Known about the structure:
By secondary structure, the protein is α+β, with helices and mostly antiparallel strands. The chain is built from 16 helices and 13 strands.
Amino acid sequence: MARPAVMQRMPQIAHVDVNCFYASAERAFNPSLEGKPVIVLSNNDGCAVTRSPEAKALGIAMGEPWFKLAPRAKEWGLVALSSNYELYGDISARVMELLGRYSAWLEVYSIDEAFLGVKGTPAELVAMGRSMKSAVQRNVGVPVCVGIAPTKTLAKLANKWAKNNPAFGGVCHWDSVPAAVREDLMGRLSVEEIWGIAGRLTRRLNVRGIFTIADLAGVDPVKIRDKFNVVVMRTVLELQGTPCIPMEEERIGRDQLIFSRSFAKPITTAADIGQVMSVYGQQASARLAKHGLQAKILTAFAGTSHFNPKDTSYPSVCVPLPMPTADPVILTKAAHALLPRIVDGIRYARAGIMVTDLRPTGNQAPLSLFENPYEERHIGELLEDVTRRYGRGSIGLGFAGIRGGPDWTMKRDMLSPRYTTHWDELPLVKAA
DNA sequence: ATGGGTCAG
DNA sequence: CTTTCTGACCCAT
């Protein structure tokens, strides 16, 4: 090892992520999917968002619409599944709990990714990566890859390399790879492979003669900040081995919450948009309450499809709330301010609400003169309690309470059972 | 402050 | 018939 011993003790970052997470989560509970091409579909069963390696081998592209694939699914033996977020959330929690045993310094970066602060000699770090991989496979049943490097950006890159190069066996410790091999790789990969660099920046970098990762790693960080911004500068420094994207604390509060979905079929009346607003108003209330937050501003919006360039319309209204609130009645009422802007006959493809200017539920003593009568009666809690006991759709404000599901709600025709979170959908084991 | 642009997963 | 939906952050105004 060429590095001085002191360098080997520097803290490093391990980046762990689950291979094609949704498809792997489905397989963990349905072993018959093993070895088969599997895809998981986006909301409304629109397009493929996750593909098993076998599905990729069939040439199925990321984002490919299901209606194009469906006719050939049988011939391919392709299994398509609707997104089962309850299952994925639960599998994710198990993976993260397990990873937390390797380091208290754990940042859950997304549903299927985490960064861990780790220390040790190169041999120890590689062993740790392998141990994580086998433990997650054994205990949760999903495959992960691990990249370990001095910075987050390099750890992501190492992980990607481990994923694409079978020689690594799913674990790549950056500093253990010979420098010449690393440089060769960085000289061949496009800047677009780097975390934080996407289409727009790639084009701008290319204009300046920066094409490969090696090109970018070789620039002067200060000059790049002047031509671009501090984010790109941080990326350059991280590529050079200087950590400047810190491990984040778990985020408690959010700056904003958005509730928005495309409809299974277009909505053409203000009355139906009103129903959507009622549902989202209550969801917003529940989520705010869960996080102990209140909102000061609500924005309601709707929009036609981007695919249909004629008759486009994107109405929106911004409603300042008289006082911070998480009350479902007030939020729903505010959201209904959108309705006068809705033109009957226009085909709206989506609608939603956004609550912003969030703050913690106050211990501020409210002036009784302005006290909110609904808040007093804890309608939010009541609604939540009933929903918890009798299921979504059993109670609601306005039209939100009707049963049987209005026909704009999300289409999920190929949903797998919620194996881990619903007693009545537990997998059955038959002992012969 | 805020709205537009960019990115991520 | 589709391009998840949601969230963050930087920067110019």
